[in-house]
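User: I'm new to structure prediction. If I give you an amino acid sequence, what do you actually give back? Let's try with this one:
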Amino acid sequence: GETVITDEVQGTVRIKNENLDDMVLLRSDGTPVYMLAVVVDDIEQQVNHVVRGRDLLESTPWQLLLYEALAASPPHYAHLPLVTKSSDSAKLSKQTGAEALDNDKAAVNLIQALHRLGQDTHDLSDTGSPEALLHMATQRWSIEHIKPNNISINQ
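Assistant: Good question. You get back a string of structure tokens that encode the predicted 3D arrangement of the chain. For your 155 residues, that looks like this:
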């Protein structure tokens, strides 16, 4: 069979179950591994939306199968595009040497991030407080405007 992921950004993703490795649920000492713990925790916390990076899309089939095995409804998923370096397409992170954002330019950074995620930034001012910008951004947020492709920047 196959596991179908209905993702609010990436669309419908189909994974053949034969391509999934066996999943370890408990460590040798009996403690649950992350995959099981996160599903059980999300069920207990009644999480209904999971928004995370596209690099975690490949772990979603196992999570969906765990929800099914536990007779629980899975949350809605939205896997956001990654920000990558244009030079080598590596995901920006501390491990890949990404430069830290300048906290003194928080408003500018926030507007740039919103713009790259396809959000409406036409009348946002970088002279406002980050808190005010974030409030405005949450009022306007539209997941439909996010493109599934990674976001490449020069750094």
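You can read the tokens as a compact description of the fold. Here is one thing that stands out. The helical segments are 34-44, 60-69, 106-116, 130-140.
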